[in-house]
């Protein structure tokens, strides 16, 4: 991927968002700043097309934005918009793509399916609660004609 200045994207500094769980287990969140990103266009053994897949990440529920698109997951390998439903990635933030919203003010776990970000099956999804935990676990389960979103406190 390229950042806005057309420079190559750089990895996140994992040490920037670290906690200790249960007194001894270290956990690290993805603390993204401008020009941070990851991409692999030559993957093997992952879902393609409309095959089922699941993905998860642990991130900060305190650091997010309302921009399109903070994505984590499976995208097109040609770096182009290949049409509706041609990618499946987790979105985490408080954007209101085409009026979509979860409960409260966010941030919410969502699905970016290319040309649309969704917080559930309807424009308003009050069952999608804000995830404001220090560390949030967010999950997207994709199937051929549907998806499920899950999220919660990663330290619980």
Automatic annotation (TrEMBL):
Residues 10-155 form the Alpha-L-arabinofuranosidase B catalytic domain. Signal peptide: none annotated. Keywords: Disulfide bond. Gene3D superfamilies: 2.60.120.200. Disulfide bonds join 68-69. Pfam families: ArabFuran-catal. GO terms for molecular function: alpha-L-arabinofuranosidase activity. SUPFAM superfamilies: Concanavalin A-like lectins/glucanases (SSF49899). GO terms for biological process: arabinan metabolic process; arabinose metabolic process; pectin catabolic process. This is Alpha-L-arabinofuranosidase B catalytic domain-containing protein. It comes from Haptolina brevifila.
């Amino acid at each position: 991927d390229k950042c806005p200045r057309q420079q190559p994207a750089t990895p996140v500094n994992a040490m920037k968002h670290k906690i200790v769980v249960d007194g001894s287990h270290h956990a690290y969140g993805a603390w993204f700043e401008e020009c941070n990103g990851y991409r692999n266009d030559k993957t093997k053994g992952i879902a393609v097309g409309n095959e089922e897949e699941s993905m998860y990440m642990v991130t900060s529920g305190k650091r997010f934005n309302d921009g399109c698109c903070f994505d984590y997951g499976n995208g097109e390998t040609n770096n182009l918009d290949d049409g509706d439903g041609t990618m499946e990635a987790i979105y985490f933030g408080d954007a209101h793509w085409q009026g979509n919203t979860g409960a409260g003010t966010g941030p919410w776990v969502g699905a970016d399916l290319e040309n649309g970000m969704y917080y559930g099956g309807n424009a308003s999804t009050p069952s999608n609660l804000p995830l404001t935990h220090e560390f949030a676990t967010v999950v997207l389960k994709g199937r051929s004609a549907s998806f499920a979103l899950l999220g919660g406190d990663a330290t619980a």
